[in-house]
Amino acid sequence: MAKIYSKKALVAQDLKPKKEVVSFLLSYSQALTVVKVNNKRIEIIAN
Predict the structure, then answer these.
(1) Per-residue exposure over 6-35, b if at least 16 CB sit within 10 Å of its own CB, e if not
(2) Structural domain boundaries in the chain
């Protein structure tokens, strides 16, 4: 029998990222450089 997913109540969860995840994303965004050459985008990650 098919399960009906629309009848479940949507509960808003208070999601908080870990400090390690935030640190990783910030360092990644700082290392990322996007260069446009002609009509192409080149993404470079400087480590």
Answers:
(1) eeeeeeeeeeeeeeeeeeeeeeeeeeeeee
(2) 18-47
At residue 32, what is the residue type? L
DSSP 1-47: -----TTSPP--------HHHHHHHHHHHHHEEEEEETTEEEEEE--
Full-model pTM: 0.51
Q: What angle do CA 35, 36, 38 make, to 5 degrees?
A: 150
Judged by phi (left if over 0) then psi (alpha if -120 to 50, else beta), residue 24 lies in alpha
Length of the chain in terms of residues written: 47
Q: What is the mean pLDDT of the chain?
A: 83
